[in-house]
Amino acid sequence: MGLRERLTKEWFMFCIVLVIVLAKMDPSVGAKGGPLKPEVTITYIAVSAIFFNSGLSLKTEFTNSWLHATSCFFCSDLNQSCWWE
């Protein structure tokens, strides 16, 4: 297996090692108050990206979920009307 095929197959691990080496060479980039602004980037952007990526991987069954949501709304509406009177 050549170097190109190996990098194509193991691209994620290569990128992780590359980022670790770059962070070791210049840690001030990711330090508090540095150019990456980790207090904002990690708190909001990274967490939002992780949840968005997780949401993209969910299976979408719109028709089944629509019927389920409609029945749940009907039941909750019926329950609340019984409780309030």
TrEMBL record:
Record's GO cellular component terms: plasma membrane
Pfam families noted in UniProt: SBF_like (PF13593)
Organism encoding this protein: Phascolarctos cinereus
Keyword set, alphabetical order: Membrane, Signal, Transmembrane, Transmembrane helix
TM annotation in the entry: 41-58
Similarity field: Belongs to the bile acid:sodium symporter (BASS) (TC 2.A.28) family.
Protein name in the entry: Sodium/bile acid cotransporter 7 isoform X6
Cross-referenced InterPro entries: Na+/solute_symporter_sf (IPR038770), Put_Na-Bile_cotransptr (IPR016833)
Signal peptide: 1-23
